[in-house]
Design brief:
By secondary structure, the protein is mainly α. It has a domain of 230 residues. It is 73% helix and 0% strand. It contains 23 helices and no strands. Helix 8 packs parallel to helix 22 and helix 9 runs antiparallel to helix 11.
């Protein structure tokens, strides 16, 4: 079945790539859009089915995009110039320092030292820590690179070696707990930030912190955690085998103290970006550079070459590059318009319209990753509101539920980074993302509909 699925993906991608040469092809998609559709389908399909290592598929994406002139280099390689890429780059350097100095183990003891030998308590504590950071740090990627070394140190403390069920569960809890609940906090994720800009620029709607939190966090935050923790415990349950804490009473080394100050200043920089206006990416890069400076030398050149994972950086660049290609060719807007036309929205059936708009977002998220959802559907929100009879503000808020649905790991860059740092394969991670994505659609979306009716956002 897997071979048949791979063959089907390759065949479908080949059809789209050949579409511009067919006499009827350009009536469906413009040539650039058809080539982009074939390339995106091939790339996402290979990632979803783990046909090749993720970075190899990413390199195929870059090669095919340039050879077939799918989009200009500035769109294809947009990931390498994006803030998210540099944030991960700096975070990888800091992460190497946290592991070398042992500061991660010390922080894990401080944050999770009283959990005892309970896997359920460990999962719940990691989930709560991930959500708590979302109120302090606006950058999802920044939270991932800060939290993952601590979570891995916790896994070591509990006796979960690399590849073990318990370790995979803790990593996936941190990964999903960092992103999905944060979609209910303004602004604590990239899609949310894009939605803020689209709402204000296109419609003059200014989203504010309190009402946004009230609409989304009770369901996407608290509701998601209430499902995530028991599901992880059931899927990845393992018996903790706590390691001896011989180093617990030792004083902090010089490198630990210096790195502690670097992390504290970085956290302060992340949290206060609305004051100083410096992107979290450059805060992360500054922290990484500080670890490399000769006078500090927390990360040596040799350690840098060994621990800064080039494969992760190539993978992230390709994920962002897909968004650039989709946006440049207009494929996303074309896809959104086609899906809206097929949705059959109609006034007076708010439950169906609500579900149909969520489904539109999910399909676009599968085709392009979640970040472009508000960018693609933002300009179409007025048309969707007119067709469905729902208020424009309600339509914009439904998009939030759509980009909170993660069915496969490649849809979210921070999730990919967390899994790569934690040594979790796409196949291992997909066991959880399919269940949690399905629960978001089948359980949390209906709860959000009922909650919004109670709040008066849906008549």
């Amino acid at each position: 079945m897997r071979r048949a699925a791979i063959a089907a993906v390759i065949a479908a991608a080949a059809i789209f790539l050949a579409l511009p040469a067919l006499p009827f092809g350009q009536t469906w998609l413009e040539p650039a859009q058809a080539r982009a559709a074939g390339l995106v389908l091939l790339t996402l399909g290979f990632w979803a089915m783990s046909v090749l290592p993720e970075f190899m598929t990413a390199l195929i994406f870059f090669l095919v995009a340039m050879v077939l002139h799918v989009a200009p280099p500035q769109a294809v390689f947009a990931g390498f110039s994006s803030a998210a890429w540099w944030l991960v780059f700096g975070g990888l350097i800091v992460g190497a320092g946290v592991e070398r100095t042992g500061l991660g183990k010390r922080l894990a003891r401080a944050m999770f030292g009283r959990l005892g030998a309970s896997y359920a308590r460990a999962v719940a504590a990691v989930a709560l820590a991930a959500v708590a950071l979302a109120f302090l740090m606006p950058s999802t990627m920044g939270r991932v690179v800060l939290l993952m070394p601590i979570v891995l140190a916790l896994a070591d403390r509990l006796g979960f070696p690399a590849g073990s069920r318990g370790r995979v569960g803790l990593v996936m809890t941190a990964a999903l707990g960092t992103y999905v609940p944060a979609t209910g906090i303004l602004p604590a994720s990239v899609p949310t930030s894009v939605l803020i800009g689209a709402a204000e620029q296109l419609y003059g709607i200014k989203l504010t912190y309190g009402p946004y939190l009230l609409m989304h966090f009770p369901v996407l935050g608290l509701g998601y955690l209430a499902i995530l923790v028991p599901v992880v415990v059931r899927l990845f349950h393992d018996t903790p085998r706590p390691q001896a804490e011989r180093e617990a009473a030792t004083a902090m080394s010089r490198d630990e103290r210096v790195l502690g100050w670097v992390l504290a200043l970085a956290l302060l920089g992340y949290a206060l970006d609305f004051v100083h206006g410096v992107s979290p990416a450059w805060v992360s890069l500054a922290a990484g550079l500080a670890c490399l400076l000769p006078g500090i030398a927390i990360v040596s050149p040799k350690l840098f070459s060994e621990r800064v994972n080039l494969a992760v950086l190539v993978y992230i660049a390709a994920i962002i590059g897909i968004g650039g290609v989709v946006e440049h060719t207009g494929l996303g807007t074309r896809l959104g318009a086609m899906l809206i036309q097929a949705a059959g929205l109609a006034p007076g059936v708010s439950a169906y319209d609500f579900a149909a708009i969520v489904a539109l977002c999910v399909l676009i998220g599968l085709a392009t990753t979640v970040i472009p959802i508000p960018a693609i559907l933002g300009p179409l929100a007025g048309d969707i509101a007119a067709a469905s009879g729902l208020p424009l503000m309600t339509v914009l808020m439904i998009y939030v539920i759509g980009f909170a649905v993660i069915l496969v790991p490649y849809q979210s860059g921070p999730l990919v980074v967390a899994m790569q740092l934690g040594g979790v394969s796409a196949r291992q991670g997909m066991r959880l993302t399919l269940i949690m994505g399905g629960a978001t659609v089948a359980v949390l979306a209906p709860l959000a509909y009922l909650w919004w009716r109670a709040l008066g956002w849906i008549g």
